[in-house]
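Lab manual, section 2.4: Encoding a predicted structure.

Procedure: take the sequence of the chain (260 residues), apply the prediction step described in section 2.3, and record the output as structure tokens. A sample record is shown.
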Amino acid sequence: MADDGTTETAVNHMRATMPARPGRLRRIRYSFECLGWRAAMTELANGGDAPESDSEFDAQHGTDTAGSVEPGDLGIGNAESRKLAIRYLPSPSRVTSWMLERIGVEPRDYSFVDLGCGKGRVLLVAAQQPFHKIVGVEISTDLAAIARQNIARFRPSSGQVRAIAVENTDVRKFTMPPGNLLIHMYHPFDPAVSAAVFARLAAIQDLPQRRVVVAYLTYTQSVSSVAEMFAASGWLRLLRYEESIRGRYNWLFYEGTPTA
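Recorded output:
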């Protein structure tokens, strides 16, 4: 049967939306900056430890953010939402700190929103910066409760921490804070859910117009689907892509101004 060109068109579209993969030296340099020397050397040698085994943050702060939770154990009642969820994994605090130092925003001019915040580790790291507001959104009632407990326990050595709110709701129903936004995501759900979130955000006509910056952390296997989702949004453009040695901690930075 003759090829009608559909397959070739799909392949070309995927190539057009995929960010250029950094060279090996850049991936190594990023991994050492982001993970630290010890973790990066472990990554180079044998693939490194799985994200769920990273308990250093909890040992330091007496919190409960480590481990993993499969979608079926998140306590999501809605079958469709449960199907689109992805298991909870904690982001290493160094990875979040690396992003905050390089994302290029002035915290006082932005609200920080973590979509799919899980047990709240990223929120706790971000709360040490002077963001206007800090909000986590989590559909799992169990994880949202743990996040709130962690917030109550958290006492950083600096003694400086911003107030944190955790909203226990579907991100597609969540109303973003007004003004400029830094949105963090650690591949928390199917890109179809993300597409709905950014379509809803684009429909809000704020005056003056807000700037939206997205820091999306994911692994190599999902980069193509995530990049395609952002390209389809029509208003978010890629600023930067960084890939770790083993592809576990890849950052996609996007920015844009919502337009209906």
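Check your result against the sample. The two ends are 42 Å apart (CA to CA).
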